[in-house]
Amino acid sequence: MDKQKEILTTALKLFVDYGFHGTATSKIAKEAGVANGTLFHYYKTKEDLIIALYIDIKLRVAQHIESYRDEHTEYKEHFKKQFIGLMLWSLENDYEFRFIQQFYFSPYASLMDYEEIQKLSKKGCEELEEAMEQNHIKKQPIDYLIAIVNNYVFGIQQYLRQSKLTPEEKKEVIYNSYETLWIMIH
Amino acid sequence: MDKQKEILTTALKLFVDYGFHGTATSKIAKEAGVANGTLFHYYKTKEDLIIALYIDIKLRVAQHIESYRDEHTEYKEHFKKQFIGLMLWSLENDYEFRFIQQFYFSPYASLMDYEEIQKLSKKGCEELEEAMEQNHIKKQPIDYLIAIVNNYVFGIQQYLRQSKLTPEEKKEVIYNSYETLWIMIH
DNA sequence: ACTTTTACCGACTGATTAGTCGATCTAAAT
DNA sequence: ATTTAGATCGACTAATCAGTCGGTAAAAGT
């Protein structure tokens, strides 16, 4: 693993465990096994690192959801696959998910403008808009829909994290939760 | 306004705008118009202040929801009143809401144990459990239900905050959103 | 009246932090 | 072979921060 990647991985873990300001850059560097200067060679400021990490994770999520794209099935099934795919991914990428949440509700989020954030999940949004035009789902403001779906995902993930369910039971919950989501947007 | 209250109010604003570690205790004291030592007279540590603020807001929310209690109407209407009451409160207490969200997803949340957090909205949870037993709402794990409802509220609030709707339009959204919530839990 | 407790002040400190800088070390380009 | 450019190092610094302390003033208790 190259040093830059190592920095990101370590930063992710520390930021989630101790918060943004609660994590010193020197601690990240030390734990990542690189020199202090190396961190600042790749990221000019701590803020840069935080935003780079956010974008990195967002892109990985988008890419993963993308891999579930299947234009041939009907919309409900197509959307279901993506939702389930995302939730299963969240089970195995807990830190990534928690980082996104922490970032969302932190003052750092307002450093990126709203447009730029949305751009990172552009494909997904476009698909929702398209589905709305074709009357597969209820007509409502796209921002509203996104907020609802996002927070539903967060809710399920949060429940699963603090629950003591077995992996099998968690998967069961995920599969069942889709029906409710569909009812919400349909 | 007494000094202690002034400290809490100032801390709320600064924590939301700059984050927990991004806000220096000296800055809180200065902006609240009290001496540095006074802050530490009331709160032994910064962490104490953060948790006291969280509890203060949680209690105010609980109290406000409580004021909408009305045992005489049927459950759907009763729950609606509480939901609408909460959402309207959130419109006028934006900072309080954002603080709760920030706290939830910060490492500070894990300093309080889960039990203690739930206790602060005990009444609401008990009511939900009761309603479930009497088959007013779908039978499902109480934690699941709470996570879903909580995050739905967050979602609507988040949408309203970043939207450019007039106060009247916002109220319209709130009233409409209840139907979806009811479907979700029913 | 006097004693104790509480409210409040602000200068001070030891520790920590983000970020800098000049040096060394590659590895590719010419 | 020599230049150039990026990668990596770690000691250093100026600034900042959480929390302390010794003191004064005002309430509260007796």
From TrEMBL, chains A, B:
Q: Which residues form a coiled coil?
A: none
Any matching Pfam family: TetR_N
Q: Which GO terms describe its molecular function?
A: DNA binding
Q: Which UniProt keywords apply?
A: DNA-binding
Where's DNA bound on this chain? 24-43
User: What PROSITE patterns is this protein classified in?
Assistant: HTH_TETR_2
Q: What sequence ranges are listed for the domain HTH tetR-type?
A: 1-61
Is DNA-binding given among the entry's keywords? yes
Keyword field contains DNA-binding:
yes
Superkingdom is Bacteria
Alphabetized InterPro entries for the sequence: Homeodomain-like_sf, HTH-type_Tx_Regulator, HTH_TetR
Q: List the PANTHER family.
A: ACREF/ENVCD OPERON REPRESSOR-RELATED (PTHR43479), ACREF_ENVCD OPERON REPRESSOR-RELATED (PTHR43479:SF11)
Q: What is this protein called?
A: TetR/AcrR family transcriptional regulator
What is the protein's species of origin? Flavobacterium supellecticarium
Instruction: Output the lineage of the source organism.
Output: Bacteria, Pseudomonadati, Bacteroidota, Flavobacteriia, Flavobacteriales
